[in-house]
Input
Amino acid sequence: MIVVSDSDILSMFGKVGAVQHLKRLFEEIYIPPAVYEELRRAKEIGFDFVDELIDNVRIMNLNEDEYSEFVRLMEDEDYLHSGELQGIMLCKHRNGVLLTNDRRAKNFCKRNNIVYFDIKGVLRAFYKKNVLERGEIRDLVEAIEEKDNTRIKGFEAVFE
Output
């Protein structure tokens, strides 16, 4: 099983300097070329946290069949960005798990039986696999909410 991430989950962890936690949980994290390009653009406009992300992921190119399906779906699924859709294609064809917070990407995965983890799923895996203790998870959530200007609603459910 491979783990493929889109940019939103990676960015959350990158902004708080916590990519090492993802690496402890998943060991290898892959990104498709479109996500790499998103990260490079973020770096170009001054987001230095991107360096740590790029150093800790591996780029996985789409093969010919995956790319053909990606191109076809880009026309049909105009609400999905290329990074999310490339990640979905890699997971679909290579029995992978997608890391994404995007609601539309998660819905596409549900409809197509593709396994995904959103931020709460990742936090739950941290807890269940003893990667982080409860207090460390709470501290991580607090840092993500502050640095990423977001709110992780109902995250306490990860401890159930």
Q: What stands out?
A: The chain has one domain: 3-117. DSSP finds nine helices and five strands in the chain. The first helix runs from residue 7 to 15. The first strand starts at residue 3 and ends at 5.
